[in-house]
Specification:
The protein is α+β, with helices and mostly antiparallel strands. Helix content is about 45%, strand content about 15%.
Length: about 150
């Protein structure tokens, strides 16, 4: 049951804890807040340890350190490994299987570009992106610098 929405000066206020929500999606954020904090609705659960979470991002963060997940992964030397989720054959070993599982099935993106903020699941993809992204940043800077010199 949802408590009546309180709106004061284009701001949504939670009538239970008096938290203020501003911005374009304030009513949506308020509903998520109310369901998670006050009603304790947890609709996301870890498929390994059955722990429950109110938000998708909380579960995603939990996957990085879930002890039961690492228990279910195969032991070193047990390869080629057949992925139980997508039946893909991983020929190189446990490390590659873990990388495959985290990036493909859990969609974890642990590597971030410092220039533009784009996130990647694998460090190799980040390195390739940084070569291009850095070149684009330098090229746009030199073009701006070039146009400044012509205007003077």
């Amino acid at each position: 049951m949802m408590v009546k929405l309180v709106v004061i000066d284009d701001q949504t206020v939670c009538p239970v804890c008096w938290r203020i929500f501003k911005g374009k999606y304030q009513s949506l954020i308020y509903r998520r807040h109310y369901n998670a904090i006050h009603l304790k609705i947890e609709k996301y659960s870890c498929e390994f340890c059955e722990r429950k979470f109110a938000h998708y991002n909380q579960r995603k963060r939990h996957y990085k350190n879930c002890a039961k997940m690492t228990e279910k992964l195969p032991f070193p030397g047990d390869y080629p490994i057949d992925c139980e989720t997508c039946s893909r054959l991983i020929r190189r070993g446990v490390w590659f299987y873990r990388r495959h599982y985290k990036s493909v099935h859990l969609r974890l993106k642990e590597y971030t570009c410092q220039d533009c903020g784009k996130m990647f699941a694998e460090s190799g993809n980040l390195k390739r992106h940084q070569r291009r992204c850095g070149a684009m940043m330098n090229r746009s800077y030199t073009l701006a610098e070039y146009s400044r010199d012509e205007n003077v």
